[in-house]
Amino acid sequence: MEEDTGDRPSTNGTASTVANPTANGCSRRLDDDEFERYSRQMIVPGMGKEGQLRLINSRVLIIGAGGLGCPASMYIAGAGVGTIGIIDGDVVEISNLHRQIGHATFRIGLKKVDSLIQHLMGLNHLPKYIPYPFHLTPQNAADIISQYDLVMDCTDNPATRYLISDICVLLRKPLVSAASIQKSGQLIVLNCPPAPQGSLTPGCAPCYRCCFKKPPPPSSMVSCGEAGVMGPVVGMMGVAQAGEAIKILASALHMPPQSPTDPPERNLHQPTLLIYTYDLESAVGPYSFRALKMGGRKKNCFACGENSTLTLEGIKTGNPDYVQFCSAPTSNVNLPPEERITAAAYHAAKERGELPGHILLDTREKEHFSFGSIEGAVNVPFGKLLMKAAAIKRDGGAASEILPPAESGKGDAPIFVVCRRGVDSQETVEKLKELGLDDQGKRKIVDIIGGMRAWKEEVDPSFPFI
Amino acid sequence: MSDTIEVATIPITVDFSGGLEMLFDNQRRHSVSLPAVDSGGKPADIAFLISHLCEKLMKDPRAELFVLDSHIRPGILVLINDADWELEGEEDYKIQPRDNILFVSTLHGG
Ligand SMILES: [Zn+2]
Questions:
Q1: Which residues form the active site (chain A) (predicted)?
Q2: Separation in Å, CA A178 to CA A164, A181, A185, B74
Q3: Pick from A389, A370, A388: which is nearest to A464 by CA?
């Protein structure tokens, strides 16, 4: 707030610039459609005509038109935010629809941004909708984000999350960030009010990196496509995201105080991480929602801290490398070719009767297994298998105990291992050998390359792969 | 007064969220009686709690999903009585009776 950007309350000479969209709109009349349409939210204490006009004069960028972006954009549009940009490069798929409720069955195959804007137009035709039917990249991010007053991170991968936050720090944009998977959700408002990079005035809001310094290792991360997600859980987070964005814009919480008499607590003070935990087996419990107190800006933050070297030019030219940053090396199993077989070759050998009495282990989760499996396969979920292996090592049981009881007495019958996409199965082969189940190489233990996905592609196109 | 016979413990609750509960018997809340001092006689801190959880409470052998080089792995937030542990001294925070320690893994899906 020390350096002069012309937005001090007393010197309002720059009121017509985009830096202060509230000043020029505050005196305008609402037309009849606006008046009727927004009446029920304008009469809420604290909102009023002034808050509504701030929304109408605001520009919000929604990054991601999926499980978060659909509900978030619906409330942003309904509330009357004047300019709404939506960016996403994907197309609508049928498996999106249980949670991505801004799309429709008859719009499968359409670009998500176009599908969602069709829906939003039906809800409220007054805002200006701007589609960006491609993914956000280090090259295009600054140009797009600079056109907006507030950014909503509705993406699904850490590399993009760090990119968005870095650009928001450099362009001084408030960021409302949410994430969700399976039965959990998280929400946090960042960079609000925005402070210049490197400024360490007490009370400076944190950026994404201040709160989440490093991404989790890729091996611990799964996507909604792989791990699944409950629609209402991700929906709840998207709706809460819209709630925070509307609050910030309607009350100008991202702006320096407009009047010297404004209490300092008007601006978001205590960074708070909201977490939501949903349980399919029990009713709403006392820890379903938790508001967690987070720290402020970190002195040594890579993006917003004291000696940060992050620049817009750097980002554009690949520095930092977001993909690299989010993909630390993983310990890859390297099986020799004789311990691997393609799905097609396995199927052919089985058809020719070359595999009598073999064991086929399927290490997918039981939910996945329940939708279908290769004939004769037995299900030992990967996590359970590792647990059993550890118990055998610890307590010194027989290696064959790791197999289901019906299979454990089959002497040296060859073992084939299949999983969803062919990663866990390789680790399983390695694990079984480690336990000595391969009988010093006399018993064959073989990985089916590419898992059930390859089975569907190479052998059985009708297989219900999820 | 021999503490080899009677080890004083600190009663606390430990919560796991964001998928970490999977490593701890799928149970989100655990009541833990934490030894008041570690093997070297130092008062129990968060670092000691983490090793205690790995040894005594973790049911899943995939410890690398929780710790990395004997520190909590990147992507897990530690909250002490609902406040980020960085506000409380991180691993050096001395555990108090009835503390609630929450481990949450950062989510990225959407
Ligand atoms: Zn930061």
A1: 224, 419
A2: 12, 11, 7, 19
A3: A370
A97 is an annotated ligand-binding site residue? yes
Give CA A311 to chain center in angstroms: 25
Determine whether the annotation assigns residue A192 to a binding site. Answer: no
Span B67-72, average pLDDT: 83
DSSP A79-138: HT-SEEEEE---B--GGGTTT-TTS-GGGTTSBHHHHHHHHHHHH-SSSEEEEE-S---T
A to B CB pairs, distance under 8 Å: 120
Using N-to-C axis directions, what is the helix angle for A382-395 and A424-434, rounded to 10°?
Answer: 10
- DSSP H helices, A15-68, are 21-25, 32-37, 39-42, 48-56
Structural domains of chain A, with CATH: 58-326 (3.40.50.720), 337-458 (3.40.250.10)
Q: CB under 8 Å to A302, separation ≥6 — which residues?
A: A209, A213, A308, A310, A320
Q: Which two tokens stand for residue A272?
A: 């708070």
Active site residues of A: 224, 419
Give CA–CA dist B34/B32, Å, rounded: 6
A71 touches A94 (CB < 8 A):
no
Contact A217 B59 (CB under 8 A): no
Alpha carbon separation from A18 to A7, A54, A57, A254, A312 (Å, rounded): 11, 12, 9, 14, 21
Segments making up each domain of chain B, as ranges:
9-105
Q: How far is the CA of A207 from the centre of ligand 1 (A)?
A: 4
Find the mean pLDDT for residues B101-106.
93
ipTM of the complex: 0.89
> Of the CATH numbers 3.40.50.300, 3.30.450.20, 3.40.50.360, 3.10.20.30, which one belongs to the domain with range B9-105?
3.10.20.30
pLDDT of residue A214: 87
pLDDT tens figures, A231-276:
999 999 999 999 999 999 999 988 876 666 665 555 556 899 999 9
Distance CA A385, CA A298 (A): 42
CB contact under 8 A, B87 and A293: yes
Contacts of B18 in chain A (CB under 8 A): 184, 186, 275, 277
Amino acid at A443: R
pLDDT mean across residues, chain B: 88
* Among A21, A246, A216, A233, residue whose Cα is nearest residue A152: A246
Residue of A nearest to B77 (CA): A212
Map residue B102 onto helix, strand or coil.
strand
| DSSP-derived secondary structure for A160-227 | HHHHHHHHHHHHT--EEEEEEEBTEEEEEEESSS---TT---TTPPP-HHHH--SPPPGGG---HHHH
Residues of chain A with pLDDT under 50: 1-24, 329-331
